[in-house]
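Data deposition worksheet. Section B asks for the primary sequence of the deposited chain exactly as it was used as input, without tags or linkers unless they were present during the calculation. Section C holds the resulting structure in token form. Section D is free text for depositor observations; keep each observation to a single sentence. Incomplete worksheets are returned to the depositor.
Section A, Depositor: J.P.
Section B:
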Amino acid sequence: MKILDFFRSKVIIFIIQIFILSLVLIFFNYNSPINFDSKVSPPQERIIQTIANYVLFRDFSGLIFIYSIWISISFIPIFIYNSFKRAYSMNLLTFFFPNFFVYAFLYNNSINYYKSNFLFHIIPTIFIGLIIVVVSFVGSFFLKKLGKPKIETRIEDLHIIMNQIKSKCPNCGTIFNSTPIYCYKCNSNIIIESEDNIEVE
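Section C:
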């Protein structure tokens, strides 16, 4: 249980999602170059560019690529939590983090690029955020539907077990939801009967 709780931690899921994103970006050598202002230092450029690669794009193919990887990793919380609210909140948290820092860094360090490209990036960003919410809802819904028959089967099994341990006093007819040795009313020996043989008036 502690191991499961550990992997359900938002910090751990966040790290897993960012790690997978990083691997995909490195594998495909994806880069969305930014025209920084002259005042931005090389270390700042590297930091901003690294984070920007998670959310920004140059063209339509880059947009599809970014959409694809974000939608793909949004399934991780869905499978771990099996809860719509927890899944979409986790996905939005992961999605919000790099976006916030990219736009904040660009606004403070490269205002020219920020002003000229803000609408170009912010509209698809909002749109993919909405898609992530929808995917979280639909994914959680179908996952619950798939898991529901198993839960219902377990409930039926428990119901059968509960019925099997019912007992009835042969003397006074008192019904018990357990199997005592003697009747609490008349001290007679108890016989175990199935639910079908027990009639409750």
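Section D:
The chain has two domains: 2-159, 165-197.
The mean pLDDT is 80.
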